[in-house]
Amino acid sequence: MSELILYDFGNSVCCQKVRITLRAKSLEWNAIPVNLFTAEQYDPKYLKLNPKGVVPTLVHDGKPVIESTLICEYIDQAFPHPPKLVPADPWAQSRMRLWSKMVDEGLFEGISEISFSAMFRERMKSMPEETRQKRFRNVGDPRRTDRFKSTYEHGVQSPFVIHAVAAYERAFKLLEETLASGAPWILGSEPSLADINLMPFAARLDYLGLLDLWTADRPRVRAWWAQASNWPYFKSGLRDLISESEFAEMRTHGPKIRDGIAAHLAVLRRAAATVPDPSVA
């Protein structure tokens, strides 16, 4: 019997998509919590498993697998029993990976900045200065440190938050267009990793009370989210594993940045409306 160990942090979007994938494959695992707020991810023992000092890390029969997108594909390949979450067709695989790429290159940093400006910024404000500076030093990536410092200092007015709003606007615009085919899921009649990778990022916006800013005029995205959020593996892999205190924190702090996010979105949409349609001669 295979042994699966997941180094995990409950309300991490990257951990959430791995847990949804594990649930979808009907797998059991041993969870080892890694407290990001006390810098346990930088413990030398953990860094031997994951040199980047991030979560999640999956250890399968003693072998570590890192990077959440790669972990999800690994799970589907290592445990091929239904459902298959990576399509067999190479073209469909490329479509799936376009969504993984969009999540990894835009929405991941985006939700980090939105969440930081809403919630974690408040936590850092209440820290002693020495502890706060240690948190900045411990990020381990100069680019992430710059983003965190900008969002800490400027909140929702940080340019990185504006970039986040734009990333979500691109993603939800594409999702609305993709679902115009009439299929309920991104690649067709069944959910795939394209959907699973996106689910935690939509969920975080929903729990912060911000999702409707992007979906109010996108009925297909709303239908997709209604279906995704009621999918049993989403419930057991994500929603049921968030504590009530975490839900309360999101409900409390999300509305505080709503007006700022809405203002950024309005500016982006006005700018997009002035771009000439290349199809019109």
Q: How much β-strand is present in the residues?
A: 5-15%
Under the CATH scheme, which architecture of the largest domain would be assigned?
Answer: Up-down Bundle
Class based on secondary structure composition and strand pairing: alpha+beta
Backbone CA Rg? 19 Å
**How far apart are the first and last residues' alpha carbons, in Å?**
64 Å
Strand order of the largest sheet: 2-1-3-4
When the domains are counted, the total is 2
Low-confidence blocks of residues: none
How are helices and strands ordered from N to C?
A: EHEHEEHHHHHHHHHHH
The average pLDDT value, as a whole number, equals 92
CATH class of the largest domain: Mainly Alpha
Explained architecture:
The protein folds into 2 domains: 4-78, 3-Layer(aba) Sandwich (Glutaredoxin), CATH 3.40.30; 90-273, Glutathione S-transferase Yfyf (Class Pi), Chain A, domain 2, CATH 1.20.1050. Strands 2-1-3-4 form a 4-stranded mixed beta sheet, covered by helices on one side. By secondary structure, the chain is an alpha+beta fold. It contains 13 helices and 4 strands.
